[in-house]
Amino acid sequence: MTQLAKDFRDKTAVCGVGLNISNGSGQSYLGHAAEAFKLALDDCGLKRDDVDGIICLSFGSDYDRFLEAVGLNVRYSFQGWSHGRFISPMLQLASMAVAMGMADTVAIVHGRQKKPYGKDENPEPWRQGLGPHGESPAYGAVSPVLGAALAAQRYFHMYGGCGDDLAPIALALRKHARLNPIAMRKAPMTREDYLNSRWICEPLRLFDCCQNNDGGACIIVTSAERARDMKKPPVYISGMQGVYAGPDLHNLSLPGLGVAQQKVYKYKPQPKDLYAYEMAGITHKDVDLLMTYDAFSPLVLFVLERFGFCGPGEALEFIKNGRIEIGGEIPVNTSGGLLSEGHVVGWNLFIEAIRQLRHECGERQVKDAEIAQYGCFLGESIIFRR
Amino acid sequence: MQKSIMSIDEATGRYLPFLYPEEMSYWNGLKENKVVLQRCNACGKAWFPIGPACMHCFSFDFKWDAMSGKGVLHNYVVYHKAWMPWMESRVPYAVIQVELDEGPRLTTNILDCPLAEVKIGMRMKAAYEQVNEKITLLQFRPDKG
């Protein structure tokens, strides 16, 4: 670890968050983004012009149009590719920009509209090679669910189990969503409901897949020092690591499962795979709640093995008996996650981590939560501390 | 992101592959019922997807080479949801990944095999589906020897 990284720990913080989720409000991308920005400013007590950095993602309103619409000039801006795996790098970049003094206060802003992904308007699946989730449209290999279904099938082949064994994930997250006033999917779900939900891309069912919705999210990052003077308690950024990538990684898969050109082996994290813990000075045992990108339920299995919460092939057993529920050994996606709270590209997962560490989650509050991890199957992670 | 280009058959509504210029040896091979991929002149390995250099040793010295067309069913999923009208009469259908004996894994459908009999590990051989006069798609069917 570099000296800079040691000095970086807890020097930046999230000071404000704003989130709205709705089921097709008719609002534009830009409208959602502007509304979330306002909510986040109000959350921390800042004025628009206190923000001097902005980060946006593609597929939403572009950064320049957003800034024009809200009448803000900044000295730092960036726009990234709007896939769930790239939300961590965006937040990391905001934090680093603040630490380096390139901006005092950076707002990450995103708005999205309910739109079926993978339909005609999206050319991504025709990318040369295969699409970003392994798509190959001429074969009917479409929609992001493909990547997760391929990975789940290989997981079951290597370690045993079948689609039915994913039930505890959907059930736990629905249980969490029922404690979350803003969650989109709150109807009670029994194991029978889960098993009776229709196949989408076998071995995955409807209830293994998140749904699209409208939404907007904003996260404001500033220095720890400034954050301490704001309305809400700061949530410090303690450690982080990037999106691991290459032919041995595949979107929506765990390393070693053999999706597309991935090598086949039983993945177990090595010290170099756990840099965020080293940076934060913790191990997975110190994590009070885990937030993970759960567009599809198998991704919860993969993150548990990716960060060593359990060993290779043990996740199907690990998720049983309430272990990933609030009150369990390691509560996962306490808001209901993308599966039940809603899909705001994953920004809502960060926002839940922040709110849990501020202890403002009411019925779904993880008792005495001090450390929250956002971590995913591709290895990207951020460790938050109150 | 790299620019990608959608391709849809207007008469049938079927999604088609976009034929990128650097992939034409592959598409021309399929028209002759051969699986032609790149093979490295430095390390001897073949690879997929098609690219500018050997993904194993990063040599730019390669040739186009006919593969055996044989391999093993490495993975599969079964689509029950039709994402576009053309698929509605075809669900449920399988999407498979076949590992060629030469190493690369290819994503296709499976022909002449009931879904209940699709199993990881089964031997497969290449099949060729002529979609139109420009495009022949690689497919696989069980290799019963």
Structural class of chain B: mainly beta
The CATH topology assignment of chain B is OB fold (Dihydrolipoamide Acetyltransferase, E2P)
% residues in beta strands of chain B: 25-35%
Mean pLDDT of chain A: 95
Radius of gyration of chain B: 16 Å
Q: Report the average pLDDT across residues of chain B.
A: 95
Q: In total, how many domains does the architecture of chain B comprise? A: 1
CATH superfamily of chain A: Thiolase/Chalcone synthase
How many H/I helices of chain B? 2
Question: How is this structure best described in words?
Answer:
The complex is a heterodimer of chains A (about 375) and B (about 140). With about 375 residues, chain A is of the alpha/beta class. Helices cover about 30% and strands about 15% of the residues of chain A. Chain A has one domain (about 5-115, about 210-385): Thiolase/Chalcone synthase (Peroxisomal Thiolase, Chain A, domain 1). The two termini of chain A are about 25 Å apart. Mean pLDDT of chain A is about 95; it is low at about 115-120. Helix content of chain B is about 10%, strand content about 35%. In chain B, strands 6-5-4-7-8 form a 5-stranded antiparallel sheet. In chain B, a hairpin with a 5-residue loop joins β7 (about 125-130) and β8 (about 135-140). The longest helix of chain B has 8 residues, at about 25-30. The interface between A and B is large, with 38 and 45 residues.
Q: What labels would you give this structure?
A:
heterodimer; A: 386 residues; alpha/beta; Peroxisomal Thiolase, Chain A, domain 1; two-stranded antiparallel ribbon; 17% strand; globular; B: 145 residues; mainly beta; OB fold (Dihydrolipoamide Acetyltransferase, E2P); 5-stranded antiparallel sheet; 3-stranded antiparallel sheet; 34% strand
List the helices and strands and how they pair.
The complex is a heterodimer of chains A (386) and B (145).
Chain A: H1 3-8, E1 12-22, H2 29-44, E2 53-57, H3 63-70, E3 76-80, H4 87-99, E4 105-112, H5 145-159, H6 167-177, H7 191-196, E5 199-202, E6 204-205, E7 214-223, H8 224-227, E8 235-241, H9 275-280, E9 289-291, H10 298-306, H11 315-318, H12 337-340, H13 347-357, E10 371-375, E11 381-385
Parallel strand pairs in A: 2-3, 2-4, 9-10
Antiparallel strand pairs in A: 1-7, 1-8, 4-7, 5-6, 8-11, 10-11
Chain B: H1 24-31, E1 36-40, E2 46-47, E3 62-66, E4 70-79, H2 85-88, E5 93-100, E6 105-108, E7 123-130, E8 136-142
Antiparallel strand pairs in B: 1-2, 1-3, 4-5, 4-7, 5-6, 7-8
